[in-house]
UniProtKB/TrEMBL annotation, chains A, B:
PANTHER family listed in its UniProt record: LACI-RELATED TRANSCRIPTIONAL REPRESSOR, RIBOSE OPERON REPRESSOR
Domain of life the protein comes from: Bacteria
Coiled-coil annotated residue ranges, if any: none
Organism: Caldalkalibacillus horti
Keyword Transcription on entry: yes
Keyword terms: DNA-binding, Repressor, Transcription, Transcription regulation
Protein name, as recorded: LacI family transcriptional regulator
Residues of the HTH lacI-type domain: 5-59
Amino acid sequence: MKKKLTIKGIAEMAGVSSATVSKVLNNTGRYSEETKQTILDLVKEHDYRPNAVAKSLRTRKSKTIGAIVPDITNEFFSRIVLAIENYCGELGYSVFICNSNESEEKELQYFKELELKGVDGLIYLSASDELFQMKTQRIPIVCIDRMPKFHNVAIITSDNFQGGMLAAERLIEKGCKNLLLVRDYRDGFPTIERVRGFEHVLRKHGLEFGEERTIKVEVGITQAKSAVDHYLQTYHKENALKFDGIFATTDWLAFGAKQALEGYGVNIPEQVKIIGYDNISLAQYTSLSSINQDKESLGKLAAERLIQMIEQETDVPSQMLTLPVELVERDSTR
Amino acid sequence: MKKKLTIKGIAEMAGVSSATVSKVLNNTGRYSEETKQTILDLVKEHDYRPNAVAKSLRTRKSKTIGAIVPDITNEFFSRIVLAIENYCGELGYSVFICNSNESEEKELQYFKELELKGVDGLIYLSASDELFQMKTQRIPIVCIDRMPKFHNVAIITSDNFQGGMLAAERLIEKGCKNLLLVRDYRDGFPTIERVRGFEHVLRKHGLEFGEERTIKVEVGITQAKSAVDHYLQTYHKENALKFDGIFATTDWLAFGAKQALEGYGVNIPEQVKIIGYDNISLAQYTSLSSINQDKESLGKLAAERLIQMIEQETDVPSQMLTLPVELVERDSTR
DNA sequence: GTGAAAGCGCTAACAG
DNA sequence: CTGTTAGCGCTTTCAC
């Protein structure tokens, strides 16, 4: 087991000091073209690569960021994460991915852990609105789809209000008169906006509805089944088809609703039309119309913004960027 | 912006040297109960936490591992990754997640990058069999579902041969006479085993089939559609239903096959029965029978094994652990 | 029981 | 243009 090659080793071989090697490796300071070549050759020959930990300790930069995600198992999130990782990878950043499972406690714990491990920045994804109040927040943060109450974070979100509007408009356009809203039981910021947009259009058309037209169900892959059950129950109680259109704030929810309806022999889209949200492949492959969020851009923009903040070292004012959404029509509303 | 608190700061406050503080923080060396208390109180009061980078540089341990994954967007992988992360989190390890996109080049690149960032170990997940030959492999590695050709790595895999057998047995048991195999176009280790198991049972029952009964299609979420198309084409050419049972080496493939059949008005399971592989939620929600792999155990065991290897610092011989699989029956074979 | 000192591998002044 | 020096924050002998 030969000894690990360090910058000093290269320096000795090249007959210069480690400082000089450091300079050519970082394109900083000055050095002659000649020594540069000698060093570069040596580096290549021995496949020397500088120890990132030492560098990190010295420079207080780790080329590492953290991403805190509610559930990587959910395609909506994993696609955002993938986009983040791809963009970061190109720029030499690595990313720690942490599953918070929506728990604030875990988020905080991860935050501390990541800070210690020296991440240069953090991306928070979450449907939840609440966000810890870090007094000593020294690293840049960008949030996706959440609206923290403190400053010095950038925010990337997609136009949830618009998404809700699009859904309502299409349903009404297709002749639906009695709409049903299937939503997450929690009131995360994105959900609230979607619902607001949806209701806004309903009102514009003189349609109104109260709680009894809104079903709040569990959300998440593991709970999708219970969503269906809950839905079935409610439907059963009503004992008659009281609606002809459904807007679900998630594709999984839409899928649950669809299965429940099919279980009762209801025809889609003839009797009931359905629109989901996120446009994950589940929607694509089960022919569910859905509001598409540009997951790739969401991730890429967040990473781009974060790295900007990291590398400029300048306190940018809290900014917000909103991406457009679009309706992807499939069989469930045709 | 107050100065960051270091071990020296605590030492000064406590009126001792940094060495002593280090000792109590790491339960190492000796110190009096009294100084221990003073220090611990100070630590708590100021919420001091030692800088992980410095510690890492000094000790050559980072409490960090890397996980190289083909595609985190694929639920099969993301669930394994989640299990890894959960287990590691409990033990204070963080994990870098890297998407290789099945590219060997990227794998190698990530490998080097991670090594530099000082990860203590690595987990490789992949359907691909080929694995780079690292001469200078200094950190422990565990592989999930791949069989590298060099030593000093632990291997966790699930019983793919058995999975193939289970599928064939059930299909035959249900009265299928002409089986079709839909498989990945690449010959990754897990696929090969599944096919071997499947064919083994066929032979036992005097059923034989050649290439014309085997469709090789693309795989992966983004290519699922093209799998369907490819399949449709082939089916179309045959111009008649030449089979009554399908075994697909992936749930996505099974789903593609199902959609193709439905597009042609073929009844499932009356005319054709289908069994997929992996048992991801897609299978669950589209009522596809599937061979279940215990994704949570796969991830947990891999992480457990890796951390053992890391902390024991002893060269364990190359080991292999095979997990059992089971058939989950749903409508597609009932 | 405790501290002084050395040093992990690298970079950033500052001299020369 | 290049080298010396002085750490980054922590752990670890080895003296006392």
